[in-house]
Every structure is written in structure tokens, then in C-alpha cells.
Amino acid sequence: MILKHKNLKLFIVVSILNLILNPLMNVGLSYIEEKLIYYLVLSAAEIATILIESLVVYLFIKEKYLKVLLYAAIANISSFLIGFVLTFTPIYQTRITIIVIVVLFLSVYLFIYIVTLLAFIRNYRNRDDNRRRNEENSQDN
């Protein structure tokens, strides 16, 4: 949304990246019990996620890489901070609750993306309908 690109292909790519990387990282981290190792792996995973997302998005929108990298960093750091605050709540005490949260996250995320995808499709249809009408009007004149 920050990049203000209304490109359906970009939207789908970012959605797929988030649907793969976020749960993968969270479920993988749930198996690490040593705090120091956990935070090292978390830091490496966050950096890798930022780099992967920024590179893939850069390839699709051909925007300046540093700009895309900055947006990916802002989005992932924000997500990290929210997750960090949540780790101090009792909700993250067992592995099963983490898996339940990931499933809930995926469900809500998928619902939001389906609604947004439908809005994109409607927007493209309206754009095509308007283009056809303009072509017909220009042929009539």
C-alpha cells in the first residue's frame, strides 16, 4: 500500500511471500528453546525476510532498490515489534498456542487478501469496461 502500486501481480507476489515466510519463521522458531539461540535465529530470519521481500518486490516493480528495501524493513520491523510485545503475554507459553495463532493469522490474512483481490478484479473489470466504452465512443465520432 505504501508503494501505491495497483498491480495485481505485485499484490499476489507480496501476499504469497507473506503467507510463506511469516508462518514458516514462527513455527520454526517455536522449536528453539534456548533464548540466545532463539534471538540469533530470529534476527537472521528477519534480515533474510527483509532481503527476500525487497529483492522479489524490486524485480516486479522496478522501483529504486533502496526505496523498496526501506519499505520492506519498515513493514518487517513493525511486525517484529508487535510480535515482540506479544511474547510477553501468556498467549505464547506453549507450542500449540503458537500454532493456533499462526492458523488464525493465516485465516484472517487469507480473508483480507481474498477481499482485496476481489476489489482488484472489480477495479480491472471497470477499467476494461471504461476503455471499451471510450474506444466505442471514439469510433462513433
Helix/strand-derived category reads mainly alpha
Determine the strand fraction and express it as a percent band. under 5%
Number of domains: 1
**Number of helical segments with 4 or more residues:** 4
Could you explain the architecture of this structure?
- By secondary structure, the protein is mainly α.
- It has one domain.
- 83% of the residues lie in helices and 0% in strands.
- The model has no long low-confidence stretch (mean pLDDT 78).
Name some characteristics of this structure.
single chain; 141 residues; mainly alpha; 4 helices; elongated
Write the layout of secondary structure elements.
Elements: H1 8-29, H2 35-61, H3 65-86, H4 95-140
Characterize this entry briefly.
With 141 residues, the protein is mainly alpha-helical. The chain is 83% helix and 0% strand.
